[in-house]
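Minutes, project huddle
Topic: does the predicted pose make sense with LNRAV4D5 bound?
PN asked that the exact inputs be recorded in the minutes so nobody has to dig through chat later. Recorded below.
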Amino acid sequence: MILQSIQYKDGVLTLLDQTKLPHDIQYVDCTDYEAVAVAIEDMIVRGAPAIGITAAYGVVIGALQYNGDKDFKIYMQDVITRLSNTRPTAINLLWALGRTKEVITEDVNQTIVALENLAQHIYEEDKSINDRIGKHTLPLIKPNSTFITHCNPGSLATSALGTATAGFYLAHAQEIPFKVFSDETRPRFQGALTAFELSQAGIDVTTITDSTTATVLQQQDVTAVIVGCDRVALNGDVVNKIGTLPLAIAAKFYNVPFYVAAPTPTFDLTVSSGDAIPIEARNTREVTHIYDNKVAADVAVYNPAFDITPNSLITGLITEHGIIEAQEQAITKLFEEIKA
Ligand SMILES: CSC[C@H]1O[C@H](OP(=O)(O)O)[C@H](O)[C@@H]1O
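Predicted holo structure (tokens), as shared on screen:
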């Protein structure tokens, strides 16, 4: 069973509350754009592709809320600005919102229809991208291979099979035997969500702590590490969940291939390298408390939500167009081919 993180019907955006997983399966119905913005900020919905899709539907709901008390286009800019200011790192959110701006006109009803069609298109496009990334990942998944993944780049973070997990779902459907180690990913434990969703699908997955990943690389015959991403710079540097960098360093040390599942909407060709990408700093309570239980002393806390993995540590970027080198030349060539 693959859980759907996002559903939209007749002006209501229903989000699977990922802060309640894996213990409870609860949903949040959003009928105003502020609630959508809060759902993104509080990570009720999370994952780069998922927050892009959600933001697009947030614009739809904002348009449906319009009551005529100010100029419609100015009002819609306010809606888009609010949603743009939720989370700064995943480029998918800004990419989706940028596309909504292109369909907004003075005609309210025409705009609502156009926005609903666009949001649905972005959702369906993500499903297609998931499936195509999965197909390009499949050749890596030989019988009895072993993988490590980090955070949750799965069905919960996207519209369908996920990015780094898509190949796992397709290989499982072909009854290829393989196993996955999923590190829990402190402080928000998104990796535990990966273990949850893969186990729900019947995939052989083992949860480990983040600090166990190097030991698994040392002791197991790991085929590859496959992770997701939140933004890929022009030079192939990757920003992903905090903890990705040390995993990449350990993989390099143990000569294990390190792949990043990278949908093209997650590339940002306007930034030359990873250090130009804004890294979200989240609430320190994420580190000091677990389910309201205090687990840290009253000292300073540093809680960046993402880190920067340099292209030199990356074996390949698994895009929906195939696996490419994490290098500017390969990325530039890919986007030129896409545009052609
Ligand atoms: C395909 S999901 C990509 C990416 O998004 C996650 O971030 P967050 O859980 O903070 O929204 C994580 O970094 C995943 O790897």
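Observations noted during the meeting:
- The two ends are 39 Å apart (CA to CA).
- Residues 47 and 157 are 4 Å apart (CA to CA).
No decisions taken; revisit at the next huddle.
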